[in-house]
Amino acid sequence: MADTRQTLWHILGAGSLGTLWATRLFRAGQPVRLILRDAARLQTYHAKGGLTFSAQGLRQRLQIPAQTLNDPEPIHRLLVACKAYDAERAVASVATRLVPGAEVLLLQNGLGSQQAVAERLPDARCIFISSTEGAFRDDDFSVVFAGRGFNWLGDAQESLAPPWLDALTNADIPYEWTSDILQRLWRKLALNCAINPLTVLHDCRNGALQARAEEVSALCDELVGVLKACGQPQATEGLHDEVRRVIEATAANYSSMHQDVAQGRRTEISYLLGFVCNAAMQHGCEAPLLNTLRQRLVRHLASRGLPGD
Ligand code: NAP
User: Fold this and answer.
1) Has residue 3 got a pLDDT over 50?
2) Staple 280 to which of 112, 122, 183, 226, CB 3.0 to 4.6 Å?
3) In this structure, what CATH number is given to the domain that contains residue 225?
4) pTM for the whole structure
């Protein structure tokens, strides 16, 4: 039987999180291939001399092998590290390369994109990841590891962990296998909906929401109702308190959505607030505050020339 620890990792999307995973796996001696969108991106990558990774003031350049979407190499284990709005299309571009029973690990924030990918790939094992690690690009193919965090991995169809997870331990990737990954993703989604859109609309750091406690609390009330209607009651436990704690602990930070808007980047709204509003509607659950928030956010994004989806 093949040594499962040495299964080749294909990493689709060499952005912030894709690079963070690729560099750690590569440095741990695991075989890694980056999948870039086309020959032009591959050429740029080679011209840059590989991926640059910075952490704790140290910079390192790694020449991780890379290829394009239409490379013929079969894929056994795919880590999808695109934004939620790119994930389904990117995976579709490599679908014919996936061997039957391939593992597909999905790093996307929010909900909706993971399910769309899983529906497209009935022969693959899709593993969802909820990540609180932080990384950002300071240049093309150059990434800074910004914040220690954690990764929860789980499979919505099958609770048994795959046998190769110690490959992540060897690569210093902090993780835990969870038998209820959807609950984790719903919880993170609720935290995001209670905080991030308001920071964009009020153009403020997270901490400024302490002065808007009533508005935040009313949103939490509604989120609790929606999550319960969607069959996620456990994801609502202590939500109000955790939202307060997160606002306090990250008071000096700008939320990820605020950073996206400030830098003129498309947001993942459809997989965050948009997903929650649609889920509420499908379950016949009234969510007037969340819907109004979504409309205001979409208008705000349009005024900045950004898409509302
Ligand atoms: P990112 O830096 O924008 O990277 C996304 C990468 O995907 C880019 O390199 C992009 O390529 C690539 N890509 C998109 N479509 C592609 C395609 N069709 N073929 C090949 N490559 C394609 O995004 P990120 O910050 O890593 O975020 C990825 C996901 O992780 C998001 O859902 C995000 O919310 C989540 N997340 C991020 C962080 C974080 O700290 N960054 C933390 C937690 C969760 P180009 O370079 O060619 O544009």
Assistant:
1) no
2) 226
3) 1.10.1040.10
4) 0.96
